Amino acid sequence: KSYKIALIKGDGIGPEIIDEAVKVLDAVASYSGFHFNYEELLMGGAAYDITGDPLPQETVSGSLNSDAVLFGAIGGEKWDTLPREKRPESGLLRFRKELGVYANLRPAVVYDELANASSLKPEIVRGVDLMVVRELIGGIYFGEPKGRDENKGWNTMVYSRDEIIRIAHQAFKIAMTRSKRVCSIDKANVLDVSQLWRETVEEVAKEYPEVELSHMYVDNAAMQLIRDPKQFDVMLTGNIFGDILSDEASMLSGSIGLLPSASVGAKIGVYEPIHGSAPDIAGQGIANPIATISSASMMLRYALNENAAADKIDAAIKRALAEGYRTQDLAQFDAKEICSTSEMGSIIAN
Ligand code: NAI
Ligand code: MG
Fold first, then answer.
1. Are 180 and 210 in contact (CB under 8 A)?
2. Average pLDDT of the segment spanning 267-296
3. Band of the pLDDT at 335, cuts 50, 70, 90?
4. Could you tell me if 191 and 81 lie in one domain?
5. 134 is in an annotated binding site
6. Which candidate in 186, 243, 314, 329 is catalytic?
7. Do 274 and 315 have their domain in common?
8. Whose CA is nearest to atom 32 of ligand 1?
9. 239 C-alpha to center of ligand 2: Å?
10. How far is it, in rounded angstroms, from Cα 339 to Cα 20?
11. Percent of the chain beyond pLDDT 70?
């Protein structure tokens, strides 16, 4: 059996972390009796430099012809002064939109092995296991009108009822496989769009009587995530609130370099770390590849239905951490063995 994987390495640390995920995927495939065919596709600054477009059409069609997309990260200062539609980040937004992956699943799990690596007290974070379900192709990142002139800039936060309904279903379905609690995040005390969000989520909730629904304002949620993160199971959010809260949640686990994500809801899913291209550490061989390796595990689970192989990867990550291996981002508290990006990848693969 063979799977076709579209590989998009991107910019900055993207190539370094994708290479490690491929190492681990090939290792697990050789044990599991299947095989991967990779097709490398361009996106972001790397694509702009070669083709003048941060999202060449080939990247979209190649992805649609694959079984799943494994994506690194894009962006960097070099491209920050380009007009917006030429910038790497526009390529990524357009990519998600063209594939139609409207649901971004971002698990934040605190590894027992790393409870001391968090910036928070171990008793606060030990046992955290939450999932941010973030709407990905609507909201203020896409709403019209948007623009700027010399003195003004504007964006619009728009959600239609249909967009809210489909992301809410994703959240409730996932909650059914977990602790059956959904906390929907909004700013309904101030924003009209949030009032519609809240009403619509309430309606969808009626179809899931076993799931307990609560609502929270986003500012309070930012605080509660630090005060008592274990209260959360599934957090249902719009695009911008989920972006911000999931970066915040990454600090519970110790490093943004640990957190994977899956962008789903369409025929082809995109599996990617939640972090960016980390230009400040690119090329030094110190990036943490675990977020990407863990995204590869989500790809096996959600896109390819290879749950046993996904379990193997998850267990290998835990074992590497239990044995004391740490990349630099995790090393400050309890490192027994500091390792490079590629050493960490090899240890997990082995
Ligand atoms: P970032 O997530 O790239 O980095 C934030 C901080 O976390 C940096 O100090 C970085 O060194 C560290 N970090 C990130 N990933 C790490 C890893 N695997 N191991 C160790 N440390 C890690 O966010 P930032 O700095 O705001 O953005 C940098 C560039 O990435 C920008 O061009 C931005 O637009 C782009 N970006 C791209 C995303 C994507 O491709 N999905 C998502 C977020 C930002
Ligand atoms: Mg972000």
1. yes
2. 97
3. low
4. no
5. yes
6. 243
7. yes
8. 75
9. 10
10. 13
11. 99
CATH number of the domain enclosing 199: 3.40.718.10
Report DSSP state, residue 11.
Answer: S
Measured in angstroms, how far is the CA atom of residue 329 from the centroid of ligand 1? 13
State yes or no: 80 annotated in a binding site.
Answer: yes
* Total domain count, the chain: 2
* Residue 22 belongs to domain spanning: 1-109+254-350
9 is catalytic: no
Examine residue 145 and say whether the peptide bond preceding it is cis (omega within 30 degrees of 0): yes
Nearest CA to ligand 1 atom 11: 278
In the predicted model, what is the mean pLDDT of residues 189-198?
98
ipTM of the complex: 0.98
Catalytic residue among 111, 141, 208, 271: 141
169 and 55 in a common domain: no
For residue 223, is pLDDT > 90? Answer: yes
Report, as an integer, the average pLDDT of 106-124.
88
Are residues 206 and 229 part of one domain?
A: yes
Provide mean pLDDT across the span 60-80. 98
Buried b or exposed e, range 110-134, using 16+ CB within 10 angstroms: bbebbbebbebeeebbbebebbbbb
Whether 288 has a binding-site annotation, put simply, is: yes
Q: Residue of the nearest CA to atom 4 in ligand 1?
A: 278
Answer yes or no: 219 catalytic: yes
